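Predict structure. Chain length: 111.
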Amino acid sequence: MPNSDAHSADHATSWQGVSGRLYGIVSESLDGFTLRENHLYLIAGAKAVLWVGSTAELVADPLSRTRFRRALGEAQSIIRLTAPTEEGERLSTIVDLEGGGPAASASAQAA
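Prediction complete.
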């Protein structure tokens, strides 16, 4: 089960989706953060995922743009991962990431 403390994403190397799937992640700096094509981004607050998406959501969806702006104002961490190329898979991944959390380390899982 994913750790519900989204802030610990700063130190995570993987994110566990609600499905149980593990995703490799890269932490982004809050200062000077820039969206790149072909990546998904997850913006986390102290206790919750605030926004997950890509440049495609920001261009196509006004509601996503609003959520993104709000999320940046409350962000504790931003993580990046490569976006799936197929639309359906990308949208499923977004939903999976939104419900997940930083994966417990192997040593913590063994304890």
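Summary: Helices lie at 55-60, 62-74, 87-98, 106-110.
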